[in-house]
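Page 37, continued from 36.
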């Protein structure tokens, strides 16, 4: 019974955050089976990511907080998520509005974060308090990294010319930098890290919500819905 309770506590934050961003799609909700496909992809990439990270640690060492944060941790994780996301969904017919990028990117990010949380729960014998703190910090952090990735991916999808490559680059570089900075702070800030990390997370959430609103505002279905409401 305790095992099931811990497992549920480890899985619940990722599912809840995915549901939140899924329901923030105001105009044209994505098919659940496609969203779950991306969530499962996030689950499946955990093992190859861990293997690559282990290899890099053996090669580079993990003594440098900068190298560990920006290369071994954020560099590998965000690149693999971006690579899989781009090749699965970028040219998919269901990717038909800018906000879709956020839904799909948060799905793959939260699939990854959920497995990380489950592994942490059982390898570290985590308490519910520890799992709650992870829900508020690393799990929601992965969700927000996904928001930044998906927002720029949506911009790229519906741009033309040089702007496409620019937004594609930003869709990888922004989550990589923010993720790396988060990991760096977690490693280098002294014992009163809450006073730095919590405001940092608040800023990430504010920027994330702004990205959500901007992506929704660019939806081509926005005007169709308005016309339908006026007719009604």
């Amino acid at each position: 019974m305790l095992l099931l309770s811990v497992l549920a506590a480890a899985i619940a934050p990722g599912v809840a955050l995915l549901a939140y961003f899924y329901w923030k799609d105001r105009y044209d909700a994505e098919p659940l089976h496609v969203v779950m496909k991306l969530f499962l992809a996030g689950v499946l990439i955990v093992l190859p990511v861990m293997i690559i990270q282990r290899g890099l640690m053996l090669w580079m060492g993990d003594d440098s907080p900068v190298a560990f944060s920006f290369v071994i941790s954020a560099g590998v994780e965000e690149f693999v998520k971006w690579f899989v996301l781009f090749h699965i969904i970028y040219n998919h017919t269901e990717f038909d509005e800018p906000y879709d990028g956020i839904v799909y990117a948060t799905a793959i990010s939260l699939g990854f974060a959920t497995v990380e949380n489950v592994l942490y729960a059982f390898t570290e014998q985590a308490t519910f308090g520890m799992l709650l703190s992870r829900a508020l910090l690393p799990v929601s952090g992965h969700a927000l990294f996904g928001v930044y990735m998906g927002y720029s991916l949506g911009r790229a999808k519906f741009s033309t010319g040089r702007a496409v490559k620019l937004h594609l680059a930003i869709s990888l570089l922004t989550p990589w930098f923010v993720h790396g900075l988060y990991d760096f702070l977690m490693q280098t800030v002294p014992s009163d890290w809450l006073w730095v990390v919590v405001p940092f997370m608040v800023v990430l959430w504010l920027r994330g919500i702004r990205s959500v609103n901007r992506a929704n505002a660019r939806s081509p279905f926005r005007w169709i819905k308005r016309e339908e409401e006026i007719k009604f």
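The chain has nine helices and no strands. Flag for discussion at group meeting. Residues 128-157 form the longest helix (30 residues).
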